[in-house]
Each structure stands twice: as C-alpha cells, then as structure tokens.
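Weekly puzzle thread! Below is a chain. First person to post its structure in token form gets bragging rights.
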Amino acid sequence: MFVYIDEAGHTGKNNADQNQPVFYYMSLATKGNLDLDLDNTVKNIKTKHNISELHGVESSDKIEYFALDILNLLRKNSAYFCISVVEKNFLSYAKLYDTIFDNVENKGARFQTYQIRPFRLLMLNNLCGITPIEIAHNFYENCLFANSEEQAVDVMIKTCDYILNNIHKLKDSRSIEIIGDAFTWAKDNPKEITTFNTRKIDRWRHLPHVVGFLPMMSMLSIYSKKHKTSIYKIIHDEQQQVKKVITELHKIAADTSTSSKWDLRENGYYDLLKIKETNFEIKDSSTSFGLQIVDICLYIKTHQAFINENTLDYPNTRMLLDYINDHHEPFMLTTDFFKLETQILYNKIMKHEYTEDELLKGKKIIEQMEDNHKKQKIT
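Winning reply:
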C-alpha cells in the first residue's frame, strides 16, 4: 500500500488567521503506486486540459472536466482516505488548558481535571466560557512560541491575570475554586511550567501538524491491519517549515523499539503496528502524481459545502466527493465536536439516578483527591 499526504490551512503559529481557521491533513492510501501513472491517467489529464501540475486551487475551474478520470483511478486502486481536521481556535484553547492544568508541573492543578477525561472536558468548557479567543491566541503564539523565556513568562503571567480577574463570571463556586487554584499557582510559579523551548523543533510540536499527524498514522495502521496489507511507503508533500518535526514524528512511530500501541487511557489509543519500519519520504508535489491527486481530493473535501449547494453545475465533482466521503476515516479536533461530546457527557451525568451508595462512594473519592491535592501544594 502506498500513502500520499497533503495539507491545507497551514499558517504556522498564527492560529488567529481567520482566512484559514482550520488545518486539514489528508492521506490517500492506494494499492498501487500512483506516481508511476501506469495507465497514463494523470498525463492524459494534463495534456487534455493544458495543465502542468494538478493542483486544487490552480485547477479549480477544470476539476469538473476531469473529476471522473480521478474517480475511476481511485476506484481502480481501492483508494481510502484518512483525514485530520484541527480547528485553530479550539487548538489554542486546548493548548492553554493543557499547559496550565498539567498537575505534574502545576501543584495548584488537580489530578482529576487533567487526568480524567470527563472532568477535563467539563472544566475546559468552563474555561472557554470566560476566555476570549484573543487571549487564547495570544498565549498560543506569544507564550508557547516565545523567542525567550522572559517573553514566555510575561505572557503567562498576563494570561493568568486576565483569567483570575474574570473568574467571577463562572456560575458555580467549585469551578471558581478549581480554575482559580490552577491559575494562581501558575502565576506565582511561571518558571515551573514548561512553556519556553530553546529549540525551534520543540516549539513546532504545538502546531496543528503535530496534533493531526499521529492520529492519522493510527488510522492508516488500523486500515492496513483490517485489510491484511502492508504500507510500503508514505509520501508527504514538501513543507520546509515543518519538514524536520514531521520526519522526527514518523521516525518515532516507525521505530520498532517503541510500542506498537500507545495507550491514551480515556482518550483511546494510537495503533502504530503497521507504521513500523515504513519508508517515509518528503517530496515536491511536482514530482509526485500521487501528491497531486490527493491535493485535488483535499480541495474538493474542503469545498464540499459549495459543491453540495451546486450539485447540478458540478455533477462529476459531486460524484468524486461522494466517493471520498464514503471511503474515509476522520479525526476531529473542533469546537463543534468538543461541544457535542461535552453535552452528551453532561446529559449522561445529570440524567443518571445515583444510589446513596454511589453518592457516598463518589464523595469519598473526591475527598481523597482533595486531600492529595492539598498535600501536593504543601510539598
């Protein structure tokens, strides 16, 4: 199996760019090597439509005319897609929460609001409610990507000040206590929390690329295992800015000495068995027909709302879109997905009829957690 990976919406550390609010990763897995173009599908498209390279943006006015050729090529090669969708607004909030509520580094943060998913989701929801997106973006860009430790500390303290000055807007006293404790300790001990990294490659680990890459590798591995095939080569579109960090991520995933299954506890797991010992290559799309095909498919996927609204004008493109939608696995890190999961969780908790024994047991667990939290703050 050959895999071709393209991206869209890359804005570096600038998560505030509302012209490209979402980062997309798309991997196209095929049983054949599309770069060989054995049946001359791509070459014929280029010749017929006078195109030097298939590219979604540059070829947008011609896609309808060669969409069926692409569709037939995908069907012939049993093509399958894995897609990572990372909304930059939500990523900024998530990174703020992940930094401040890490109970290993922050002695003011509680174990349960970082290590236990339901608590974490509910508390993140409350934090988002009192934090303007501009504050989250500023923390993401100017603290996590700071050029010096002094800059990171300054932004950390200012962010904590803002949250603490607005914490009264929360509706329940328990949230005020939990969020207040975490941000107060972070403000008083900013150098104890990891925000500044001297190496650029370590700062780049906060980028949407890193967030979406390993989930996509896991989806590919599971697909490969399910169909009893192996991944021969993974080809990634060239992006000089993140080339090193992506190569390093693949190297870790493909290393046979690392675990084939990364247990994320309540967050699921990464299955990397079929990624082990895979070949990884970063290429210029002009030298890879496979990368050009996935570029077209990603363009169509990211413009599906327009295509759906204009199906009569783009029937062939719609057919190609339908194939993509019927043959893909998504990873979603978006506000809508987060709100849906949080609402389902909240409804489940509120509608459950707890017995006296359950309530008593729950109270004892919380009391023990609080006792451990107080001991942690003292040490």
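Puzzle host: Confirmed. Bonus trivia for everyone else. The radius of gyration is 23 Å.
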